[in-house]
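Pasting as-is:
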Amino acid sequence: MAEQKEIILLNISGEDKPGLTASLTEILSEYHVNILDIGQSVIHKDLGLGILFEVPKEFGSSSILKDLLFKAYEWGSHIKFTPVPIEEYEEWVSEQGKERYIITLLARKLTALHLSKVSRVISDQQMNIDTISRLSGRKSLNGNNKVTNAVVEFSVRGTPEDTNIMKQSLMSIALETGIDIAFQEDNIFRRSRRLVCFDMDSTLIQTEVIDELAEKAGVGKEVKKITASAMRGEIDFKESFKKRIALLRGLDESVMKEIAENLPVTEGAERLLRTLKQYGYRTAILSGGFTYFGNFLKNKLGFDYVFANELEIKNGKLTGKHLHEIVDGKRKAELLELLAFKEDIHLEQVIAVGDGANDLPMLEKAGLGIAFHAKPKVQASAQHAISTAGLDTILYLLGFRDREINE
């Protein structure tokens, strides 16, 4: 009969001090132990360290545990030893092939209520939480705060009993408590996104440019009515587009420059684009708006591509017509696919961000589709929604931490 293997789980807690982990692992190395798992975290200078190790047959556990106990006493740390039966260990090993998901909570402020509700949904779906990590920076309580977001990421293991019910439950929590919750499969594509495509109006900028042009042309009410109906998906985008630009006939070209220079850029857009560029992401504007304003943002924020609609101008005046093919929802999805092909990446590596009904085709085409401060119909249909914070919160869905973002 084979000799039973001896497996020990070591848990250390107490004040985090430089050199503690090194001292403990040096003892383990003297006994040539086999490390089976290890995890360490520090919360407000309080250390939590766990090491699962196999005891070599030639030494036995008593000498190892005695040395570890003495060293922990020297450091003023609490130590606990738990024998792990080989059957229990093997059962744990067998679970490593289970599906994994990332659940990200994004808010201005997170409370115990948010964490408890999300944890309960995970439990009800018979899934396990492996780790919980804070992605946002530490918040000061004295009011002098540079950190504007509170973001926590759950790494979850297991197969949901009902994925649709789980997503609906998380969405309900988000609506009830006023936070955003993203639920993603933790796969290779999630960790290798390479292209981010944005809608422009009411996404990158906090206005609809055509409404701004209409105000200058004295037809604001008529155009806004058509715009709102189109964004709700009540009328065909191409039809609404032609109706709206026809009302702009005779507007002076100089008005476009004036509007462009005063565009209200969305909170977090500059931080997001600066970070994406720094880490080598490619970025694109795919807009049902106008190339003039898309190119202005390209120069301002550093986009790689711009695809939008071009207004016809003659003798310094808008004619009320357009040039080339209209960029509607269908065309946005086609352009997204073409850009992915051009960049030689999988569609799962593409992120799409938009707010209107004409963005849904590209949100559905992308590996990660995000409805940003979107209309209810779009929020209900998109994979993910951000409604409480700025565009830079997209970085957290990619796994970025505040300390990795160059301000």
